Structures are given as structure tokens and as C-alpha cells.
């Protein structure tokens, strides 16, 4: 089955054609990073206008590059939420128009589930996602630990009560005068820093919940007190990254242990972080479940927003088109 996936929920206009939920036939992305970089974050009105400028030619070029005709496409999958409403509307209108004009099935995709399905992209069948599993979804907009029994039965075991992990990376990067989006820049800088120099606070919140606003403020106060010019930026980046990744890895592994579920999946932009990946294995070893757990992670270029993950979800967990703002039930 060939699915055309369309992603326009934030600052990437991305389109892909994927076969049977894993094999990428063709993909094209227009990233707006350069446009938003001067503002230090995404400006929704500008993002929506850029989507309008690029969506048509990306879709047509994607089909052309794949040497396919519209009659070859079995399904169109588009992200319906969560995301910036004005940006989502651009992708949704393009998808609805194509579906209506060409009589191709249209399905709705939850952006968060699409991030999870990115785990199947370019993988071998033996490594495909298998329900059920515990998932850490850490992106620019969300940070959650989920228990996924199947794609219709998802429970939130914990989530951030304020900022997402990605947002914390982006805001701290801005304080360090690093470009947007900050995650990859902090990770690179952290490689040359000493992660034990700065003792940063860990929030006391629910068992599997997160809070990163206190950590962000602690970094800000440190910079205000000492002056950025007097601080070793690499040490600060390493200490900050360590604080965020410890928190994520620690709670993920504890959730796995508590729920007796040793299949772990990570997803979202922050899951590209190598220190996070390392720490997840380290924590599992510390709790003596290193041998038991099976960790799946997307290939690095499919961690952040992309159309291929939407097409993968269009194969694996399509939903009928309606209002879906990505709400699932919280575990009791
Ligand atoms: P997404 O919302 O899934 O597209 O992911 C974007 C977010 O992931 C942004 O907040 C980035 O700063 C963050 N991010 C991307 N790569 C990394 C990385 N290597 N380490 C930490 N955060 C990252
Ligand atoms: Mg995303």
C-alpha cells in the first residue's frame, strides 16, 4: 500500500510517499528554521504563510520524483493535530482537496502517534513496532510517558506540567546565544563540556511527570549572577543536558519496571539526543533490567517532524477524518 503523508503542524512542510508503513519511496521537506531563527522560535502566522507557499510544489515533486501517478496512491494521510492551527489548516486543506478531486481515501493522523510510527521507517520487519510498549515521547511541544496497548488504547502515565523537554533545550540554547532549534547545538557543545560542574535542580513532581521550568530558571539565574562571558558555556550545556536527560531516562525506566513492560520506544525530536539514548541503557542496567529491555528508537533524521512518519501512521493507525486534538486518557 502506498500512502502519501503530509505534515504541516509547525515549521516543517514535509511530504512523503511510503510503502507499507516503512519503505520510503520519496520524501521532500521544506524547513522554515532559517526564517524563524531570527525570532528565536516559531512565529505561527509566518509559519502558516510559508506552508502555503511550499505545499503544492512539494506534493507534486514528491510524486514526480517517485515516478508515480495519482492512480498509484492508495491513501492520503494528513496530520490533524496537535499543532499550530493555522499551519495544520494548510496541510489539511491540501489533503482534502486532493482526496476530493482525485477520489483517494483520506485519513486523519495524530501528530504524536506519527512520531511513534517514525520508529518503523527504513527498519527491517524484525524491528517493527509491536504493541504493547512504554513510550517516551519528547518533542518541541510534548513530553510524555505513554503506555501504548494498541494505537486506540493509549494511556498517559506521566507528562510535563509546564515546558516540554524540547522547549527547555531551545530556551536554554537561546540563553547561551546558540541558534534555534537549540537541542542539536546544545548536544554538540555539551560534548566538549564537563557535565558535573554545575549542580542544577531536579523538580519534585508526580512519579512519572516532568517539570523543566525550574531548571530553565536556574540556568537563567546562574547566567544573570555570573555573566555569560565568565561561564564555560560547554560545561553549562553539558550540565543542563545531563539534568534533562537524567530526568527523562530515569522516569522512563521506572515506568517500564512498574508496569512490567520491557519493550521501550522513544520518539520525537529530543529522542535524537545521544546522551539520552546512552542514559536509558545506563539506568536500565542500574535497575538490573538491562538484559530484559528492548529499546527502539527512530533513525536520527526521522526524530523531528517529517512527512514520512505521517505516511507510516497512515498505514499503521489511520483514523477517520474528524476533530482530533491528540487527547488520550490519563492513567488512573
Ligand atoms: P519535534 O517537535 O519533534 O520536531 O522536535 C523538535 C525539538 O527537538 C526541538 O525543541 C529541538 O531543540 C529538539 N531536538 C532536536 N534534536 C535534538 C537533540 N539532538 N537533542 C535534544 N533536543 C533535540
Ligand atoms: Mg513534532
Major sheet strand order:
3-2-1-4-5
Helical percentage: 40-55%
Radius of gyration, in Å, reads: 20 Å
Structural class by sheet pairing and helices? alpha/beta
Helix-strand blueprint:
Blueprint: E1 2-7, E2 12-19, E3 23-31, H1 33-37, H2 44-65, E4 75-81, H3 85-102, E5 105-110, H4 111-117, E6 133-138, E7 143-150, E8 153-159, H5 165-175, H6 182-190, H7 213-226, H8 233-258, E9 263-267, H9 274-286, E10 294-296, H10 307-316
Parallel strand pairs: 1-4, 4-5, 6-9, 9-10
Antiparallel strand pairs: 1-2, 2-3, 6-7, 7-8
Helix pairs in contact: 2-3, 4-10, 5-6, 5-7, 5-8, 6-8, 8-9
Bound molecules: adenosine monophosphate and magnesium ion.
Structure description:
The chain is α/β, with parallel strands linked by helices. It folds into two domains: 2-123 and 302-325, Nucleotidyltransferase, domain 5, CATH 3.30.420.40; 127-298, Nucleotidyltransferase, domain 5 (2-Layer Sandwich), CATH 3.30.420.40. Helices cover 41% and strands 20% of the residues. It contains ten helices and ten strands. A five-stranded mixed sheet has the order 3-2-1-4-5, sandwiched between helices. Strands 8-7-6-9-10 form a five-stranded mixed sheet, sandwiched between helices. Strand 1 and strand 2 (12-19) form a beta hairpin. Helix 8 (233-258) packs across helix 9 (274-286). It starts with a strand and ends in a 16-residue tail after the last helix. The model is unreliable at 324-329 (pLDDT under 50). Adenosine monophosphate binds next to helix 5 and helix 6.
Keywords summarizing the entry:
Nucleotidyltransferase, domain 5, globular, 332 residues, 10 strands, binds adenosine monophosphate, 2 domains, alpha/beta, 20% strand
Amino acid at each position: 500500500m502506498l500512502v502519501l503523508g503530509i505534515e504541516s503542524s509547525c515549521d516543517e512542510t514535509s511530504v512523503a510517499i511510503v510503502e507499507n508503513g516503512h519503505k520510503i519511496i520519496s520524501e521532500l521537506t521544506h524547513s522554515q528554521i532559517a526564517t524563524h531563527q531570527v525570532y528565536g522560535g516559531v512565529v505561527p502566522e509566518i509559519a502558516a504563510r510559508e506552508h502555503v507557499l511550499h505545499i503544492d510544489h512539494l506534493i507534486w515533486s514528491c510524486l514526480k520524483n517517485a515516478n508515480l501517478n495519482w492512480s498509484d496512491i492508495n491513501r492520503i494521510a494528513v496530520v490533524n493535530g496537535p499543532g499550530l492551527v493555522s499551519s495544520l489548516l494548510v496541510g489539511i486543506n491540501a489533503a482534502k482537496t486532493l482526496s476530493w478531486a482525485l477520489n483517494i481515501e483520506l485519513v486523519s493522523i495524530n501528530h504524536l502517534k506519527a512520531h511513534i510510527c517514525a520508529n518503523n521507517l527504513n527498519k527491517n520487519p524484525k524491528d517493527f513496532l509491536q504493541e504493547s510498549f512504554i513510550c517516551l515521547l519528547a518533542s518541541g511541544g510534548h513530553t510524555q510517558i505513554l503506555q501504548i496497548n494498541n494505537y486506540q488504547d493509549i494511556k498517559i502515565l506521566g507528562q510535563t506540567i509546564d515546558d516540554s523537554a524540547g522547549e527547555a533545550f531551545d530556551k536554554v540554547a537561546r540563553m547561551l546565544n546558540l541558534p534555534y532549534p537549540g537541542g542539536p547545538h546544545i548536544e554538540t557543545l555539551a560534548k566538549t563540556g564537563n557535565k558535573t560542574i554545575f549542580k542544577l535542580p531536579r523538580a519534585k513532581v508526580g512519579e512519572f511527570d516532568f517539570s523543566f521550568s525550574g531548571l530553565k530558571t536556574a540556568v537563567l539565574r546562574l547566567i544573570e549572577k555570573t555573566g555569560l562571558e565568565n561561564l564555560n558555556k560547554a560545561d553549562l550545556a553539558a550540565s543542563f543536558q545531563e539534568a534533562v536527560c537524567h530526568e527523562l531516562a530515569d522516569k522512563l525506566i521506572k515506568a517500564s519496571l512498574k508496569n512490567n513492560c520491557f519493550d521501550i520506544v522513544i520518539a520525537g525530536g529530543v529522542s535524537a539526543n545521544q546522551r539520552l539514548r546512552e542514559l536509558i541503557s545506563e539506568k536500565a542496567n542500574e535497575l538490573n533490567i538491562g538484559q530484559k529491555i528492548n529499546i527502539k528508537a527512530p533513525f536520527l533524521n526521522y526524530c523531528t517532524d517529517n512527512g514520512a512518519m505521517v505516511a507510516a501512521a497512515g498505514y499503521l493507525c489511520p483514523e477517520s477524518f474528524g476533530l482530533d486534538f491528540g487527547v488520550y486518557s490519563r492513567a488512573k
